[in-house]
Amino acid sequence: MKDTATTAADRPHSKGDRIPARRIDGDGTSNARFDFEGTYAVASIVLNGKIVGDDCANDSQWEYSLNGKDWKPAIAGGSCGEQARYVRVSGPVAALPDTDIQFIADSGFAVEPADEWTNLFHKKQSWSGSDGIYSIPVNGVEAHGTAARTTTVFVFGDTFVGNVDERTDARDPSTAMLNNTLGIMDGAEPDPEKLRFVWREGENGDPLSAIVPTTPKATSHHDTYYWLQDGASIGGHYHGFPLIIGHDPDGPEGFQFAVHGITHVTAPLTAAGPDLSRVKQTDTPLYFKSAGGHTTYFGAAIMPNTAEAGVPQPDGYVYIYGLQHNGIHQLVAARVLPEDLADIGQWTYWNGGEWTDRKEDCAPIAPEVSCELSVSRMTGGSLDGKYVVLCQLGGTTGNRLAIYSGDSPVGPFGASTPLYYCPESEEGRGIYTYNAKGHPHLSAPGELLISYNVNTTSMEANMAYGSIYRPRFVRLRQIP
After folding, report:
1. How far apart are CA 282 and CA 142, in angstroms?
2. Which of 53, 42, 34, 39 is nearest to 18 (CA)?
3. Tell me, what's the pLDDT at 2?
4. Cα 234 vs. chain centroid, distance in angstroms?
5. What is the pLDDT of residue 55?
6. Rounded to whole angstroms, how far apart are CA atoms 310 and 312?
7. Which pLDDT does position 92 carry in this prediction?
8. CA-CA distances (angstroms) from residue 318 to 50, 131, 291, 341?
9. Could you write out the DSSP letters of every residue in 272-285?
10. pLDDT score for 1
11. pLDDT tens-digit map of 250-262
């Protein structure tokens, strides 16, 4: 067995293919642990060319884990029955050479690092780290595999603008923190030469956030700013529903903020991205208490299900997803015709059985999601035609990427499928991971490019370690 899996060709593409694995620890005689460096459904274990028996024993005990902490015993034939990254064995088999131990893929999902995308945002000059990272095709076509025909706008949240020392990884003390920025990328490939970053500048050249609040609701609070949430290209205009954020000194370190409302922001789109000189902002009633008394707001994900978006069998509506906080974040949905998107009075809300004009009656369609997420119409593979919610489980600082799938934009969505464990929090220094989402137009059919955010609760750590506050990427593939 190879020490590392170095190319995509080494990875399994069909049921029955070998999963490359490397031995990462063990005493070499009675126990061993292997890492797939991705997650897979495992069909069987092969020892010396023979599949292990249904008792999975062979005088040894086999176990699987998604995160390297929580272990489950192998089942018939040595399979795991769900996504796994690690395998450990105790018993005589651990003494076999790696070449005599093989793991065979089952049909299902593969989730593997997409290092080329992670590296794209590992800049150490000027723009040097952010979260958020929604992606918007300027031409409005959201369908899989269409990014080569357009420009992509990346929407970022809090952003460091300043240099990072190549040797020490420390940020320059003069580094500025902006509350939102944009990235503009031409084509479909993660080429640093085709990616540029956008923010405004003050009279003295100091960097300023790309979009600054100007609405009456936003300016009625002291020192507010925008977290942009998701956006979409509809009718040649950027549309987004940013959160109005204010400071809350009573919050814990890293979470010292309060939400004051939702704004609708729009601007004409050009090949250079949104025309920031022509931004229009309007207060909305989209931050409210539900009939059950739960804080609810919209804009966390937008899915145009229209002919313009190029998705299969469109129903003509734009779906805007939100969150309802009931101890955990639950997903809620609204929809509107694209020409009425700016008229909130034309929106309707899913109440669990039908669409209603009473936003307070909106009902959860997925039981647990992250604060930011995506909803996408999939093409290719076993998920073809399904609507997939890609999110992160485990609360604000969760570390499990998961999907829900359903037959309509409002489901019904069954139980979540955990796909991948984000390992960065194991490094300490207050590091946490959050807000995974998919990028369908940047993904091949049958796949989904996924980003998630990495941060730390310590500003001191963020300044000392410039590599922390960057998006990471993995790729979901379907294995037939």
Report:
1. 25
2. 42
3. 40
4. 22
5. 54
6. 7
7. 87
8. 53, 25, 24, 8
9. TEE-GGG-EEEE-S
10. 40
11. 766 666 778 999 9
Whether 134 contacts 154, CB under 8 Å: yes
Whole-angstrom CA distances from 148 to 152, 190, 381, 447 are 9, 11, 21, 16
- The whole-angstrom separation of Cα 474 and Cα 113 is 4
C-alpha to C-alpha distance for 286 and 390, rounded to whole angstroms:
22
- Dihedral of CA 287/290/293/299: which sign? negative
Distances (CA, A) of 256 to 88, 179, 224, 249, 271: 42, 14, 13, 5, 36
CA–CA dist 80, 66 (Å, integer): 10
pLDDT for the residue numbered 3: 43
Looking at residue 221, its pLDDT comes to 93
CA-CA distances (angstroms) from residue 171 to 177, 182, 196, 307?
11, 21, 20, 45
Question: What is the pLDDT, as a whole number, of residue 235?
Answer: 96
Q: Which of 156, 159, 310 is nearest to 233 (CA)?
A: 310
| Structure tokens that stand for 302 in this block | 């937008």
CATH, domain range 8-107: 2.60.120
CA distances from 42 to 79, 109, 113, 133, 369 (A): 5, 10, 18, 32, 27
C-alpha distances out from residue 300 to 117, 146, 267, 412, 430, Å: 23, 23, 19, 19, 25
E strand intervals along 91-227: 101-113, 127-137, 151-161, 176-178, 181-186, 195-198, 200-201, 207-208, 225-227
Give the model's pLDDT for residue 213.
97
Residue 398's pLDDT is what?
A: 84
Overall pTM surpassing 0.85 (yes/no): yes
Structure confidence at residue 56 (pLDDT)? 55
> In 3-state terms, the chain is what percent helix, strand and coil (to 5)?
10, 45, 45
Give CATH 2.60.120 domain extents, the chain: 8-107
Q: How many residues does the chain have?
A: 480
Contact 335, 355 (CB under 8 A): yes
Residues 466 and 164: beta-carbon distance below 8 Å: yes
Is residue 171 within 8 Å of 160, Cβ to Cβ?
A: yes
pLDDT beneath 70: ranges in the chain: 1-6, 53-58, 251-255, 396
> What is the rounded distance in angstroms from the CA atom of residue 89 to the CA atom of residue 97?
13
pLDDT tens digits, one per residue of 146-193: 999 999 999 999 999 999 999 999 999 999 999 999 999 999 999 999
**Which residues are bridge partners to 283 per DSSP?**
263
pLDDT at residue 193, rounded to an integer: 96
Among residues of the chain, what percentage have pLDDT more than 90?
A: 84
C-alpha–C-alpha distance, residues 353 and 412, integer Å? 11
Angle, CA 243 vertex, CA 239 and CA 246 arms, to 5°: 145
Per-residue pLDDT at 29: 79
- Residue that the structure tokens 């609405």 belong to: 215
Q: ∠ CA 42-46-49 to the nearest 5 degrees? A: 150
